[in-house]
Design brief:
mainly beta; Neuraminidase; 4-stranded antiparallel beta sheet; 1 helix; 19 strands; disordered N terminus; disordered C terminus
């Protein structure tokens, strides 16, 4: 994945809603969701209105920004406000580094675009995390110009099958072309598992399951891969980062950040995690403002 970190890209990432505790299930105190660490300084500021929009379109919820090998910025949004259902606006906007709109595509294709990835050949992968009963709950591979190359998942209402998704929120492509799709979004978190496919979309294995114990997930909201091939999972409902290898072996978990929403990994052993503060945001003076959410990047 060819990507450079910038403040503008981090500011554009969409933040997520807080997790929830399972009702009617006794959870050991040792694995209860721990409060986020939100005391680190925030050196970033939001730059608004830096980019053009298609005529008549207003900024929707933005779920991700990727940089292609040509330096162009690929922005995934939810068409109008926070949904693409029944909308005609494009979901993918393509910009140069100065915010000039170069291309757009994806109109009428999604319900709730969420997961976003670009492989080494600049192919774009998107998950649709909601369904109208017929389409949605699928993962797609496109050329950088928006040509549909691959569809993974039956679509529609989830059923008990390896290629049927329940709110696929994240997607990752390994260097060998294997595709990892993470299922589960708040408030129900779906099946909360990772499903692995080969580069042709053929099923390989199911990884992990729903839960709060080590090696389990509660909403794999985003994924990234580092230079060692380790996969980092934003286990948002459990307020932690889960690390596994590409065969699905659990390696470790990190709890020292806030609620993890996404990860940017610039082909190193570092990941940058935009997180959120569920109780307050910071005003320009650096003091707590109204009860809301704000990006809190952490290394």
């Amino acid at each position: 994945m060819n990507i450079r970190i910038s403040a503008a890209m981090v500011a554009a990432l969409a933040m997520a809603t807080p997790g929830f505790a399972q009702r009617g299930v006794a959870t050991p105190a040792s694995v209860l969701m721990k409060p986020p660490n939100d005391e680190l300084p925030n050196p970033y500021k939001t730059l608004r209105d830096w980019a053009e929009l298609p005529k008549g379109m207003t900024w929707p919820a933005i779920t991700g920004v990727l940089e292609g090998s040509d330096g162009r910025l690929y922005v995934l949004g939810r068409c109008h406000e926070n949904s693409c259902a029944g909308r005609t606006e494009p979901s993918v906007l393509i910009y140069d580094q100065n915010g000039k709109l170069l291309n757009s595509w994806g109109a009428g294709m999604f319900q709730f675009p969420h997961g976003f990835w670009m492989d080494k050949d600049d192919n774009v992968y998107i998950t649709d995390a909601q369904t109208d009963g017929t389409k949605g709950n699928q993962a797609f591979k496109f050329s950088k110009d928006g040509k549909l190359l691959l569809t993974i998942g039956k679509g529609g209402k989830p059923v008990d099958a390896n290629d049927s998704f329940d709110q696929p929120a994240s997607i990752l492509v390994a260097p060998n072309g294997d595709i990892f799709v993470g299922e589960g979004h708040s408030p129900t978190y779906g099946q909360s598992r990772i499903v692995k496919f080969d580069n042709d979309g053929q099923f390989i294995q199911v990884i992990m399951k729903k839960g709060r114990m080590p090696g389990e997930l509660m909403g794999p909201h985003n994924m990234a891969i580092d230079s060692q091939g380790r996969i980092f999972i934003a286990d948002r409902g459990n307020n932690r980062i889960v690390i596994m290898d590409q065969e699905g072996k659990y390696l470790d978990e990190w709890r020292q950040f806030g609620l993890p929403a996404a990860c940017l990994s610039p082909r190193t052993t570092r990941c940058m995690w935009p997180t959120r503060n569920p109780g307050a945001r910071m005003n320009p003076a650096g003091k707590k403002a109204s009860a809301s959410a704000a990006p809190r990047p952490a290394w």
